[in-house]
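Readers of this paper often ask what the protein records in our data store actually look like. This encoding replaces a full spatial description with a residue-level series of whole-number codes. For reference, a complete record is included directly beneath this paragraph.
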Amino acid sequence: MKKLMYIISSAVVLVACDSRTYEEISDKTPVAEVVTYNKDVKPIIETNCVSCHSPGAQALTNYSQVKNNIDNIIDRISRPTGDPLKMPQGGSLSPSQITIITKWKADGLSEN
């Protein structure tokens, strides 16, 4: 009986394992060597943030507003799923989009 349970347990474990490689499940969006606002960051902000963060106190509609709020932006987009302060609400940026934004800060927040 123990042998049968071992065989069944082993079969369940083997069937449950996912055989996809890291390359198959990772986000393959390339990150620019030097990230700039206009070329790399602005499209992400316009697609994911401006619908809620347009005119008003928390606007993210131009370079200066995004640059001045970069620490808060990075904090909010990097929060774990389920955190009520995570942005964008109801979704998440891809890992490569988060990398682009954090790399933009590391690269000096260049506009062009």
